[in-house]
Amino acid sequence: MTNAMVNLNDEFRDECAVFGIWNHKEASRMAYLSLYAMQHRGQESAGIVTLHEHEHLIHKGLGLVGDVFSDEELNRLKGRAAIGHARYSTTGQNLLVNAQPLNAELLRGPVAVAHNGNIVNHKSLKAQLRAQGAIFQGTNDTEIILHLLSKNQDSPIIETLKQALPTVEGAFSFVLLTQKKLIALRDHWGFRPLSIGRLGDSWVVASETCAFDLIGAEYVRDVEPGEIVSFDDEGMSSTFYNKKETKAQCIFEHVYFARPDSKVFGLSVYESRKNLGKLLAKESPVAADLVIPVPDSGVPAAIGYSQESGIAFELGIIRNHYVGRTFIQPSQGIRDFGVKIKLNPQSEILRGKRVIVIDDSLVRGTTSKKIINLIRGAGAKEVHFRIASPPTVSPCYYGVDTPQKDQLIAAQRSLKEIQDFVGSDSLAYLSMNGLYQSVHSDSTQFCAACFGEKYPTAIE
User: Fold this and answer.
1) Which CATH topology does 270-450 take?
2) Homologous superfamily of the 5-244 domain (CATH)
């Protein structure tokens, strides 16, 4: 027997979710529900901070949102304003001290912050702050913002942010809660999404609009890159710390990260992913009987491929949704058990058929190889593999946990070598042009560094 934990996910790992609400009598429960809706963005820890009579109440813990918060804890988190966070670590270990929101008692009063992204110059910033006497409690990059806020407390907090943020490089969507305001801001490249909504007389902000759908809020607009938006009892106000013509919004949000029922960067994720499939069918057609997705992320692209090609769509693989990211292997001698417990091919549908398999991306290739073996084992006559994004050749440094370059199969092998490795009869990726067409844009609006190694910022 072994106690080794096996990662089931041969994908880029998710990032984080942030949420904020102002002027709601059940702020903590709205935050809880919204984090539940965005659980896909981070499963390692969760936390909520509320504002109650000018004081902050906080609860956070390791694990899923539903495990971290009890009814008793939510009742304790009184107040009419709150921010929340669900975390997957990209900088800093998965420790309780790194769980967010982070909070501090400053001269200007309590401040709490939650962050989605990655500050690429965090090492040099930390070194500078330590030289000035700063003491860091955790190993994450988010704590930097609290130290920067503590340096100039004579000015209003918005002015302090405008002075501090130009020194911070990389990807950050922040929500902050003070004694008097809820603040939401994005880096001037706009790497990570952050949207504004209304819920009656309440203001809400969230990483994805699927959170608004759950709590009944109406989407208003996105926080713009470089914009600082604040909410208080007088309403909403906006200013910019930096404004750029070009953006670097993460295109992988539309390929894989975001929930398909969200609107991200002003675009429907579901429609973008269907467009990926349609363009893939135009670029890489093949004679076949069925189009099947790798569930669940490949479903919209497979629908698009089917609609464009006229080839029937089927759920040839059924996913077991009650399996987490990891499980304990019962025996080292059982091969491919991780994939089999999660994905089950339907032999009645696949037997004797020429099958096109659609997946959102191809990272290491090891899981894809196992899936194709399962499909062949279910009796498929031919297996044609189609990837609804370009080859992944570079790590991400902007808030996504990715393998290093030497673990990315497309960075190490030719197309034919990848096809031979995964065992498909043919293999094709979507082109970069097709990727941009799917979101009705070009390279001046999106970051696609993971597909081309063209990083918008310097990497420390």
Assistant:
1) Rossmann fold (3.40.50)
2) Aminohydrolase, N-terminal nucleophile (Ntn) domain (3.60.20.10)
* Strand bridging mode 218-222 / 202-206: unpaired
Helix (H, G, I), strand (E, B) or coil at 259: coil
Q: Is the pLDDT reported for residue 369 higher than 80?
A: yes
Gap between the Cα atoms of 58 and 76, Å rounded: 9
Q: Which of 65, 334, 80, 72 is nearest to 232 (CA)?
A: 80
Q: Catalytic: which of 16, 396, 447, 450?
A: 16
Entry pTM: 0.91
pLDDT tens readout for residues 235-270: 999 999 999 889 999 999 999 999 999 999 999 999
Active site residue 16: yes
What is the number of other CB atoms lying within 10 angstroms of the CB of residue 432? Answer: 16
Give the pLDDT of residue 12.
57
> What would the pLDDT profile of 44-61 be if each residue is shown by its tens digit?
999 999 999 989 999 999
What is the torsion angle, in degrees rounded to the nearest 10, for the CA atoms of residue 273, residue 278, residue 284 and residue 287?
120
207 close to 263: Cβ distance less than 8 angstroms: no
